Amino acid sequence: MTLRERRGRWSGLASADRETASPALTYLQAQLYRDFVSKFLQRAAQPESQGGDHPGRAGGAPTQVRRQHWRVPPADPTKVDIWEREGARQFVTELRSVDPAVTGSPVITYEATRLMERG
User: Nearest Cα to 82, choosing from 72, 70, 95?
Assistant: First the structure.
């Protein structure tokens, strides 16, 4: 099935009622899941010499994905004392400039301290 055919098939879902849309979307979700798993397993099984990604290993993701999603945090934790209030604030602020949903010990400690100070 071509992309144009798929687009036409699913374009009516925006105006469809729940009874019509739900089974169609469930079917689409199952197709996407099967396709993803199939491709993931194929790539993981390929030897590295043939371009296999081996996503479970460090550096295993394709270069394009690494470049797009893995960023080095702007702050080096050794440059500021994250156990002091101002250092923690600066470090967490810089981390959140890269990923607003970042978490980890410094972030948890910073937020817990802020909440305790508020009372």
Answer: 95
pTM above 0.70, yes or no: no
Q: Are 78 and 72 in contact (CB under 8 A)?
A: no
Could you report the per-residue pLDDT of 57-90, keeping only the tens digit for each?
A: 545 566 666 666 665 555 555 677 877 888 889 9
Which letter does DSSP use for residue 13 in this model?
A: G
H-helix segments, 2-83: 3-11, 18-45, 63-69
Sequence spans of domains, the chain: 3-66, 71-118
Q: Cα separations (Å) of 50 from 30, 37, 46, 57?
A: 29, 19, 6, 16
Residue 82: name the closest of 52, 109, 42 by CA: 109
